[in-house]
Specification:
Its main location: cytoplasm. The protein is an alpha/beta fold and 447 residues long.
Amino acid sequence: MNWHNKKILVAGLGGTGQSLLAWCRANGMDAAGYDAKLNDDTAAALRARFDGVELLSGSLRDALAGRDVLLISPGISRRLPEITEFERIGGTVSGDVDILAHLLRDRSDRIIAITGSNGKTTVTSLVGHLCRACGCDTVVAGNIGTPVLDAWLARGGKSADVWVLELSSFQLETTPHLNAAAAVCLNVSEDHLDRYDDLLDYARAKDAVFNGTGVQVLNADDAFCRAMKRAEREVRWFSLHPLADGYGLSIDKTHLMHRGGALLARERIPLQGEHNAANVLAALALCEAAGLPRKQLLEAVKNFAGLPHRVQKIAEKRGITFIDDSKGTNVGATVAAMAGLPEKIVLIAGGQGKGQDFRPLRDVVRDKARAVLLMGADAQKIADDLSGCGVPVHFCATLPDAVAQAAGLAQAGDTVLLSPACASLDMFRSYVHRGEVFAQAVADWCV
């Protein structure tokens, strides 16, 4: 990736785009920046950070004229007509994760890569925790929050024992040469169908996490994941059922198992929900595939605190448990959260649906929900898809209103679960902000 004599455009000037500009600058490469909606404040901040940088906005086709290399942020689809035309006439398209993969290609640093529709942030955080507990110099980066090139620059190019990378399908679109030592696709469920043709198309984007020669870790319970098995590759399977030759649960679901032997009692895992047992099994499979010792891994699992806004218990008042799963931004996440909780549930959901079909919620709502409270842009679509479930549906103007109604509908022993199955930006700054509003509303109700 010697682009010193090339004309480079970095498209998308959020965190990832700025990390790409910084990497180009650090390596003596001249890159211009492009954002379709570049406002004056952002432009001023960028010029203060990158003295003399050329900044473009408006037409991407015009910005690409005369360029040799396009580095795109995950929020920009590689399939845009302007980009496909740029590639057709010989332009190079890449992204930050592919650059990191090239930087690490001839070094001893190992990559552990995690993708999937649901659970990838939990598994990435857990794997990072486990690697550090085993004494590894560990970098955790990617979709989890720290752009990979920011992490690279912060280390000054110093080697790490392990790079633990959370990778979205968007990042994998521009990552053909990852070659992770161990990689997992946790699951595939409806998400981002406003960007992909269909679910199979989305799964194909996820499958790029396995490009290379490393160990594949695959979910035996997911048909899309099973189809990702590649010939002549080592595969480690995980499942929420007993597996004779993999990582699974005991018949009575009380223990994590490997090839028929008990690893750990589920009650020793400090994470709520059955889906988190699958996350732990996947993390153990990844870490053992990377050569880490089982005894230390199992001890470290016991003190993993989990993540905020991911099936996080925030209060128990008047016999009602309140759980924040604001990071549950797609249907699969909400199904997993509800299925993994034993109590009767009053569900709070809704927001921006991203083109999803909400009908897969029907069975778990029918089986576990006492009521469903809906808010946000796609509340009516969710209600339509849940029609006939036999569970009362209520519409709410705000999240505090939903909390108040949910608390009134819940009975002692029930759980009020915020698991929106939707993105947050129609009503909130982010899923984190949504979770914070939920927590404050619960606190106000509990006074």
